[in-house]
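Structure tokens please, single chain.
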Amino acid sequence: MTWQAATILLTGFVAAGLLSYRQHLGYQRVVNRVATAENRAGVLLVTGRAKGRLRGAVVLLVIDRRRDAVTRALAMEGASVFARLRERPDLTGPTATLAARTTSKPLREATADALHLARRLAPRSHSADKVRSCAH
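Here you go.
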């Protein structure tokens, strides 16, 4: 390999790394902005992701626990470092029918991942707390 080819290859890796870092900073900025805007009682902010060979998806859902509904949704789909989180009003509504409103397989998997996390973070029932307190 000549030094010119090695330089081009190294430049490509550095550019990809910088663009990936820029994408991460943009994602972090949007998550912080949404978390600040949606910070109220009964609301849960969850993320989900799906990885594919060529394409993936990341979804950010704001779920109202009392209504069991998505009140705000953002999604990032694609295979490039130029993908950005975009508002997806078509994903808002009851969580039970969220999968039917998705438009692609990676997005469906990402929303399923986010809903799985939301279920894990759901508050425990009072009867479970009573059982735990009686066990001690």
